[in-house]
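Final report, closing paragraph on structural work. Over the funding period we assembled a curated collection of sequence-structure pairs, and we close with a single example.
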Amino acid sequence: MDNTKTRREAAALVVVVFLLGALVGGLAMHVWTSHAYSVPKVPHGPDQVIQALSAELNLSPDQLKSVTAIVDETHTQIRALYAPLDPQREQIRQQAREHIRAVLTPEQKPKFEDFLRRLDDARKKEERR
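Its predicted structure, as stored:
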């Protein structure tokens, strides 16, 4: 009887140590992967750049007005620089879409078209900014 009780306690201890090891290992893996694969958040688009600058630099209202004008003008100049390439970029995009359609099954094609519609809608919203 004493031997059976000792064995049960030893087995329980092994199970507890195993579970704690799995728990600590899983937690350590989560922390490591979230650190190793984390991508720094970089502002995208003029509005986000302005918000980030305002928050990080604690800009005064006058500074915010000046920085907003500078960022907006820079964005306008960059868009004007790339505007002549828009038709060529669109042609390349359409060719890529045709190549993708060629490898899809008939069941996948409607889903792809829906995906493209959402992508194009998001792109149009981004261009309006």
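The chain has a mean pLDDT of 89. The chain has five helices and no strands. We thank the funder for supporting this effort.
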